[in-house]
Amino acid sequence: MAGRIPQAFIDDLISRVDIVDLIDGFVPLKKAGKDYKACCPFHGEKTPSFTVSQEKQFYHCFGCGVHGTAIGFLIEYDQLSFVEAVEQLANKCGLTVPTDNFAASTPAPREGPDLYELLEKANDFYQQQLKTHADSKTAVDYLKNRGLDGEIAKRFGVGLAPEGWDNLMQHFGDPSNSNEKINEALLTAGLLSKNEKGRMYDRFRGRIMFPIHDYRGRMVGFGGRIINEGEPKYLNSPETPVFHKGSELYGLYLARTSIRDTGHSLVVEGYMDVVALAQNGIDFSVATLGTATTKAHLDRLFRHAPEVIFCFDGDRAGKEAAWRALENALPAMQDGRQASFMFLPDGEDPDTLVRKVGKEEFTRLIESAKPLPEYLIDSLSAQADLTRMDGSARLAKLAQPLLERLPQGVLRQLIKQRIEQLVGTQISIAAAAPTGRAPSRREISRGTAQQGKTDIQQAIGYLLQHPELAARVNDTNTLRDSELPGFGMLADIAESIQQSPAPNTAALLERFRERKEFPRLESLASWNHIYDDEAAAEAFDVLLNNFATNIDTARLNQLLEKAKESLTSDEKEEIKKLLHTDINSD
Q: Which one of 444, 446, 449, 532 has the fewest beta carbons within 10 angstroms of its own beta carbon?
């Protein structure tokens, strides 16, 4: 992706952004020597190990191993794409991302109205209808009967989609062909539907409307609850270019501060539950949007707080939904994260129960939620008779695939040990949790950060952290032609700096984001080699001398091997020079 935006723009952007200011807006930083520190936002910890270097414009956590540039931080923390992260940083700097050099595979900007703006205008329309439309009294009475007042309705932007086929279309203009572009945009935004004959009509009719915001506060869709009889009772916006049910959570944008303050989030099933809980002072709840909780949902929630509490009905359907949530949660359960399960009395949902028992009693129910490890083990144990040997074997068989879904770490080991105690024997599970994807940069860095550094790794690390050392690399072609492992990358980095000096480590790294070696480069950029600039230069010179010897030795061995058959006169002369060099070096 980096090649689709001019590299000069990326360099300029990184030079303008101060990573300390950027990260401090998400995680309060404190000065610690020449760097800044905080508790890591990517894993739970009490002692700060998350370090931000103003000099390198680079962050690194010595606890979990996560590291990166300002662009990398936004990608990891806010789950942005590379382009989205660049755009967000450019916005902060008052810059416009150039688009004329984008690759052909990059989608062209959509013509017509901006979908976010269109959705905002639709929300204004729905809220106005709740105040003025002839059907508004029925809607207001319904909300009051559900215990909601005007203040909470305003806070969540609750509105009304009146009965009728084209109220929204008429609001945006004449629903004839002369307004075709607007209608197509409304259709794309999920606000209109189209029948088999091509006729468009309002998607939401006769419903209480709940606007859905993404984690950045942008309007991306709606949920509608029918007022009178009819099906479906709840209707969400369809998948659109700006709305993806598998990654959005209703209420998260409004709840984010409370979630961080309390240290946990509460996942419920409906947007009415979220609003009712907030009405009663429990304002850290969110809801999925007609889908099971996904790993994307959980990763987003865990970025705000270390614990997620699932709330389900106590009936059979609730138990089945809870088990699906557990299965989906397992791959997200890195050490430091916690998940719990709360079940409501039969016939109750969060909306009705909180109004019946009040905030204090509902909070006690939240606090008594069953931790994921206990819920997992109790649920499995209920399916096996542990007084029988074959029952113990059944428990081990049931547990094995679930254990394999957990990431490597202490939690996985503790759950495994507890199940082994119950069955009376060890359980064999895969060495790593299968995730169905390539390891992330964070996972790679954790696995390699403590390994010893080879000479070439050290040299690349020095060069990344001290770009001025590139002036000492005199012959990049010889390095690259040697085909020795890592030498080509060292040559590429040196050439990049020689052709266009990098303002700092972060800018240099961003030039190689598309390379498969990028995760390893990030790790080497965070390597603490202790040396100051002068000592690093001396160590780098020694390594370059060693590399020259290695290249000569490899070439000499290659020629001597070839000498068993035949050599050209030039090759014979080359052997003499190499042998002479080797003797003199001794």
A: 532
Structure letter (DSSP) for residue 109:
P
CA pair distance 186, 193, nearest whole angstrom: 9
Integer Cα distance of 257 and 326 in angstroms:
25
Per-residue tokens: 38: 């905080």
Place of tokens 């009889």: 229
- Rounded CA gap, 392 and 396, in Å? 6
Beta-bridged to residue 267, according to DSSP, are 286, 310
**What is the CB neighbour count within 10 angstroms for residue 23?**
21
Phi, psi angle pair for 447, to nearest 5°: -75, -20
Rounded Cα distance between 137 and 164, Å, is 17
Query: Hey, what domains does the chain have and what are their CATH numbers?
Result: 2-93 (3.90.580.10), 115-235 (3.90.980.10), 252-331+344-361 (3.40.1360.10), 451-585 (1.10.860.10)
| Cβ(83)–Cβ(5) below 8 Å | yes
pLDDT at 160: 96
- The phi and psi torsions of 305 (rounded to 5 degrees) equal -160, 155
Q: Exposed (0-12), middle (13-18) or buried (19+): which is 302, by Cβ within 10 Å?
A: buried
Output the CA torsion 253→259→264→269 (10° steps).
-40
Terminal-residue alpha carbon distance, the chain: 48
Rg, Å, the chain Cα set: 30
For residue 422, the SS3 value is: helix
> Which pTM was predicted?
0.61
Q: Long-range contacts for 543-551 (Cβ within 8 Å, ≥24 apart)?
A: 543/455, 543/456, 543/458, 543/459, 543/462, 544/459, 544/472, 544/473, 546/455, 547/455, 547/456, 547/459, 547/479, 547/484, 547/487, 549/585, 550/482, 550/484, 551/478, 551/479, 551/482, 551/484, 551/487
Task: Confirm if 61 and 42 have CB atoms less than 8 A apart.
Answer: yes
Structure tokens at 83: 């382009």
Q: Residue 45 gets which letter from DSSP?
A: -
> Does residue 393 contact residue 428 with C-beta atoms inside 8 Å?
no
**Secondary structure letter of residue 388 according to DSSP:** S
Tokens of 186: 């409304």
Regions of the chain short of the pLDDT cut 70: 1-4, 99-113, 174-179, 430-452, 529-531, 555-567, 571-586
The model's pLDDT over 498-553, given as tens digits with 9 standing for 90+, comes to 888 887 898 898 999 888 888 889 888 888 766 677 888 888 888 888 888 878 77
d(CA 388, CA 279): 51
Residue 278 in contact with residue 222, Cβ under 8 Å?
no
Under a CB-based contact definition with an 8 Å cutoff, are residues 243 and 221 in contact? yes
Torsion of CA 320, 323, 329, 335, to 10 degrees: 160
CB 202 within 8 A of CB 161: yes
What is the spatial distance between Cα 517 and Cα 489, in angstroms, rounded to a whole number? 9
